[in-house]
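This section describes the prediction task in plain terms. A model, or a person checking by hand, is given the sequence of a single protein chain and must write out its three-dimensional structure as a string of tokens. No templates, partner chains or ligands are provided. The sample shown here is typical of the held-out split.
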Amino acid sequence: MYGAPVTQPMDVPYSPPSQFSQAPLPEMAEIKDASTGTLRLEGTLAKRLPNMPSGDLDDLSFSNSKQVEAAKLMNDMRYVYNISRQQASRSKAISKAKGRQAQRAAERR
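The expected answer:
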């Protein structure tokens, strides 16, 4: 005899792959704490970075671009409002002159 005696067929444990089996899921990412205390403090904990320097390389002073833009907009609005006031006053003067002229023409008849 050359090996173990064979009295029964050899039984090899075999489990066919299931059609419902899934690959193992990756680890879940850590979820941020969303309690009310944490949410209230969220805006105060983040530090604001300083403003970027202006575009000139010679002058690296920091400027507040929003204030500069707001000031420019206000100056433009003042300029345009001044023009509209001048136009309104000129239009008013012309209409008064036309009214006076019409009054004189009516009185002559």
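For orientation: The chain has two helices and no strands.
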